[in-house]
Amino acid sequence: MIRRVFEEEAYADRALRSAAEAAGLDERDRALAMQLAYGTVQRVRTLDHAIERLGRRPVRRLDPPVRAALRLGAYQLAFLDVPAHAAANESVELVRAARLERAVPFTNAVMRRLATGIRGLVASLPDATPAEAALRHSYPDWIAETFWSEHGPDGGRALLTAGNEPPETVVRLTARGHDLPGERDAEIPGSLTVPRIPDAWLANGLAWPQSRGSQLAGLAVGAQPGERILDLCAAPGGKATQLAEVAAEVVAVEVHEGRARELTANAARLGAGNVRVVHADALELPAELSGFDRVLVDAPCSGLGVLNSRPDLRWRAHPLAGLQRALLAVAAERVRPGGTITYAVCTIHEEENAAVVDASSLAADDLGAQWPAFRHPRRPEFLLTLPHLHRTSGFFVARMRA
């Protein structure tokens, strides 16, 4: 799975799912495999630095199976309480399985050096500047620079740290699952924090995995009974089905055919019969899709607010402000006069947040007055959840009037 992410640009969650199914892993082994694989992908920049310093060879010159085996072993030695001999043996066996017996002595030697030196090396890495912090916490430089610029040195470091911590385990309860046990959030009705999500809850449509930040974005739409709502970028369906619990109809648009099928299946499982899935490009919608009371633009973005749950995203993320502005323009065309447009993105990057809304010239509602706990620190009419402060995914939310 690690090799597929870095050599084939595969998505980590899909690659792990395929590998786990092929290996027939049970729930416990799957959880361990996720911890190892996701952690290695997240920390790969720091791990590569340690491998090069202690192994004395550039990682780019290593055979791909050796590189992946050393990264996995280095992660266990640096960040988990795994015995050194167990980590070394596992890395060696991975190299042997790849039929690279000639590389076994080298792998053994590097693992021995990592066992005695990697924790001290990682602990000694400074983070006084964005460049230093990017190496210590394993991010591209531009993300550290963005966090530093917009949230200051302390906030920047805190965000980088939060991006490497496990995400919250939260579900949104459906009407069928309203009495399920767990910790409820007074600010986010229907939100439930649990130690783990039982498969039966999902299979039976009792709950949907959805962070509190994401649920807040759905609530901010302000759906009312009898309304027609357009969700322009709807898959996998968390917010569309959330809106459907109140609205009369939700038209859920998804450009990718496979994801549109997944959205249809999810809506059916959750009992959201008033969700109509439209497989189309949001920038080229059929003319009849107009006159909506509300439009949700849950736009594609760099995802800087969800880096802890998407381990590979930091290595492929980039701002998408141009697409976001175009989607807001479509929303303005499809909403009825006096209707609302909600712009929500799972990023905390100013270029993709307030700057996009300001460019639309639409008048914003004061969401901060309704949810003061999540008020944007510089623009109080907007909402901004921050992983290091609110312990949920980072979301920017604005609601405008047409």
Spans where pLDDT lies below 50 across 5 or more residues:
none
The CATH homologous superfamily of the largest domain is called Vaccinia Virus protein VP39
Number of domains: 3
Based on secondary structure, the structural category is alpha/beta
Please give the count of helices: 17
Instruction: Give the C-level CATH assignment of the largest domain.
Output: Alpha Beta
Largest sheet: 8 strands, mixed
Strand content: 5-15%
Q: What is this structure, in a nutshell?
A:
By secondary structure, this protein is an alpha/beta fold. It has 17 helices and 12 strands.
Tell me what you see in this structure.
The chain has helices spanning 2-7, 12-23, 27-42, 44-55, 64-79, 84-97, 104-124, 130-137, 141-162, 199-203, 212-220, 238-244, 257-269, 321-334, 354-360, 367-370, 387-390, and strands at residues 170-173, 183-184, 191-193, 207-209, 228-231, 249-254, 275-279, 292-298, 335-345, 363-364, 383-384, 396-401. The chain is an alpha/beta fold. It has 3 domains: 2-124, NusB-like (N-utilizing Substance Protein B Homolog, Chain A, Orthogonal Bundle); 130-155, no CATH class; 170-401, 3-Layer(aba) Sandwich (Rossmann fold). The longest helix is centred in the middle third of the chain and has 22 residues, at 141-162. It is globular, with a radius of gyration of 23 Å. The termini are far apart. 45% of the residues are buried. The model has no long low-confidence stretch (mean pLDDT 96).
